[in-house]
Amino acid sequence: MFIDAIGMFIFIFLLTLIAIPMSALIVTLRARIGGRYLNRYFIISRKKSGVYEIHHQPMLGFYYAGERKFHRLWKEAIWKFQVEYPDLTLIANTLTFVSRSRGAMPVETSRLMLMFSRYMGDFLIVLNLANYRRVEGKWRVLHLIQKVHRRIPVTYILVGEKP
């Protein structure tokens, strides 16, 4: 009985370790084939309104990016979008990015969708291996998760016309 439980735990653990990188790789390959790939951390999708939305999609699921590296790749993705689509609008719906200069607009969302968005934010925070360290005596991963759960979703216009 105990050995079966250990075997089941190992199976689920290995399945998770394989499933996350494989699913992330499939999404990234589809984006690359469809011309929506910006760099190894970001892809875009087209909304019904004609604007594009940037998504954080690490190529292999798990990733290691400190704040500087993440910010550099974020800026690189925005620059690449501007070069490839100079006349189009790029937005970001987010719980984590904060920019007073960009003029965030709160997103109207249902309670269920808000809960889903927060758990997806938690998932992306947990996948970043750089978050597993202590900063000023506090685990960074826990600090970021608490931050996500205190915020409401906002939309930033990164490139293009502001309404």
UniProtKB/TrEMBL annotation:
Keywords: Membrane, Plasmid, Transmembrane, Transmembrane helix. The keyword Transmembrane helix applies. The keyword Transmembrane applies. It comes from the Bacteria. The chain crosses the membrane at residues 6-29. This is Uncharacterized protein. It comes from Paenibacillus rhizovicinus. The lineage of its organism: Bacteria, Bacillati, Bacillota, Bacilli, Bacillales.
